[in-house]
Write a structure and sequence with these properties.
It is built from 21 helices and 14 strands. It has 582 residues and is α/β, with parallel strands linked by helices. Helix 2 packs across helix 8, helix 7 runs parallel beside helix 9 and helix 9 packs across helix 19. The termini are far apart.
């Protein structure tokens, strides 16, 4: 072995905010991902870029990509997000299925007259059904390999930003597609669905060159932001056409006596199926983390055994899950390595996985939840003495202020702005994380807003600010409006654009709206790219900037979009800057 090879770290990953020393994880991920799984995820992404190359070539000739291949691309990409899938066996299976999909597409491309000599790079990845080969091959397709091949630092930064944005977009789109596939075939128009897939294929295929052009990668990243806007719109349509528009709802965090199941993650469709499966069985269902907003949907509120919310944000799940006296279902990110005390009680589904944890392959299959229900019945459940204390940031939480609800009182919002009762609107939210010394910035910022300001909160970042009584404006509008999950970021964008129109403002950046965004993983990157795509400026991003952003790329973001790193040690100076925005 050469000295250079010996010095090569076991892995390199810097896709999330918690990456080691804000530089990169090199032995094991801070998330718990081992070097082997990290390498297999890199290889699966390389494979997926190749699938996208073939898909784009087929569509350019008027061909259609199968739904089976589309679903595989969404599922396998979603699996590579932070804190989703830690099970290497699942990635070996994804690659085997990807090889089958590629073989079908190659045959289809030949029949359509595609010039296959131009299908290079990832499109021609030489797959072998051999785990030892795949482990070695994976090392050739990660970040360190791209650097060694001569990819420039700035082009690399923008390429990774594009890739992480695509990951987040595919995750959002996967949620929408599950609703369309299993619950509501008419959730959104087929032509809009096809358009999103086609754009995803092209953007993913753009990542194929060994040495991409910097300007191409900048353009691709902003294009991904536009695709994500479309995907989130379809997800919003799928949610509201299937479950109704969210309504202002007070949710208890004090449990009720009885057997219980806790559902965490983001997938509302899975919650619906779980509620159907448990109806009349004497089992209460509680939401956790970003499933909190589900209580505001009219079609879900009908289920009387959807009892309340339990716990806080994802990073506290080891405490929350250990204390929960029932079975647990994890539907999407973020999963943390389960403790022995509850490992036998937790189940994963969809793209989520962990070795040794029971997996429900399809929540829509008959008897899908039988084992989960059996585990709930054999668990202790909540006793009478457990049912007197809050389990989250407050005994009850007010939610349900999606864009439909907020815009239904747009006239009151406009009147409040014009009268001076409302002078500033803050968007405070995004992903939460474990660095309390840094993330308390968002708590302090929210707690010190002037009384003539309101805050829209989104994502699990809401748990930093939703445990307090914010009161109301003089006209009765609550000063803290929970817009929903990170999946509902589209709603905040729609509210901002609608306010600009109502106030006859030609540029949304002229509105007194301020953005304090906490990021953690790749869905947040997708949302950030959407804001940049819309030319939203003066975003305060933290607690740390992405490790993959180079000084030159940061300068570009600052100059073009006036992006601000949050001043974690001095929220007051940031707040003053926001209030002084011209």
């Amino acid at each position: 072995m050469s000295t250079a090879a010996a010095a090569q770290p076991a892995m390199f990953c810097y896709q999330c905010e918690q990456t080691k020393d804000q530089k990169g994880c090199t032995t094991v991920g801070v998330c718990g991902k081992d070097a082997n799984t990290a390498a297999l995820q890199d290889l699966q992404l390389h494979f997926n870029v190749g699938l996208a190359q073939w898909a784009s070539a087929i569509e350019a000739k008027g061909g259609k990509v199968s739904d089976k291949t589309k679903d595989l691309l969404l599922d396998s990409t979603f699996s590579t997000l932070t804190n989703v899938n830690f099970n290497p066996d699942r990635f070996y299976d994804y690659m085997r299925r990807s090889q089958e999909a590629r073989a079908e597409m190659m045959t289809q491309a030949n029949a359509l007259g595609v010039d296959t000599t131009k299908m290079t790079g990832p499109a021609q990845f030489q797959y072998r059904d051999n785990q030892d080969f795949l482990k070695l091959e994976a090392k050739a397709h990660g970040i360190l390999a791209r650097k060694a091949a001569g990819m420039g630092d700035d082009a690399m930064a923008m390429r990774e930003m594009s890739q992480y944005g695509i990951k987040g977009t595919m995750a959002y789109f996967a949620h929408a597609e599950r609703i369309r596939s299993h619950l509501n075939p008419n959730a959104y128009p087929a032509e809009k669905r096809d358009a999103v897939f086609s754009k995803l294929f092209k953007s993913l295929a753009m990542l194929a060159p060994d040495r991409p052009d910097l300007n191409d990668m900048i353009g691709n990243a902003l294009a991904v932001g536009g695709i994500n806007l479309e995907a989130m719109e379809l997800l919003d349509t799928a949610h509201t056409s299937t479950f109704g528009h969210p309504e202002p709802t007070t949710v208890t965090t004090v449990p009720s006596e009885g057997k219980c199941i806790l559902i965490s993650g983001h997938d509302i469709a899975d919650l619906h199926q779980l509620l159907l499966a448990t109806e009349g069985k004497g089992i209460n269902v509680y939401t956790h983390g970003e499933m909190l907003p589900a209580h505001a949907y009219p079609q879900l509120k009908k289920f009387k055994h959807l009892k309340g919310h339990y716990g806080k944000a994802w990073q506290l799940q080891k405490t929350d899950f250990a204390r929960f006296p029932g079975a647990i279902l994890l539907t999407s990110n973020c999963l943390v390595e389960p403790l022995p005390s509850y490992k036998s009680r937790i189940f994963t589904t969809n793209s989520v996985g962990f070795a040794g944890v029971a997996h429900i392959a399809d929540c829509n299959a008959p008897h899908a939840f039988d084992a989960l229900i059996a585990k709930a019945n054999e668990s202790q459940g909540f006793r009478a003495q457990d049912c007197h204390k809050k389990t989250s940031t407050a005994e009850s939480l007010l939610i349900g202020f999606g864009h439909h609800t907020v815009l239904s009182v747009a006239d009151k919002v406009v009147e409040a702005i014009q009268s001076g009762d409302l002078k500033n609107v803050f968007v405070i939210g995004g992903c939460d994380g474990s660095e309390n010394d840094k993330r308390n910035y968002f708590t302090d910022l929210g707690g010190n807003l002037p009384k003539d300001a309101i805050a829209l909160t989104i994502g699990c970042g809401k748990f930093r600010i939703n445990g307090h009584d914010w009161g109301t404006l003089p006209n009765g509008i609550p000063r803290l409006l929970d817009v929903g999950q990170c999946n509902d970021s589209y709603g905040a964008v729609k509210i901002a654009l609608a306010l600009a129109q109502a106030l006859k403002v030609d540029d949304v950046n002229k509105l007194p709206i301020h953005y304090a965004v906490s990021w953690f993983e790749q869905k947040a990157v997708a949302v950030l790219l959407t804001l940049l795509h819309l030319n939203i400026q003066n975003i305060y991003l933290g607690p740390y900037l992405p490790a993959f952003v180079t000084p030159n790329v940061l300068n570009l973001l600052v100059e073009k979009f006036k992006l601000h790193p949050t001043n974690s040690g001095d929220y007051a100076s940031d707040l003053q800057q926001m209030l002084n925005k011209k």
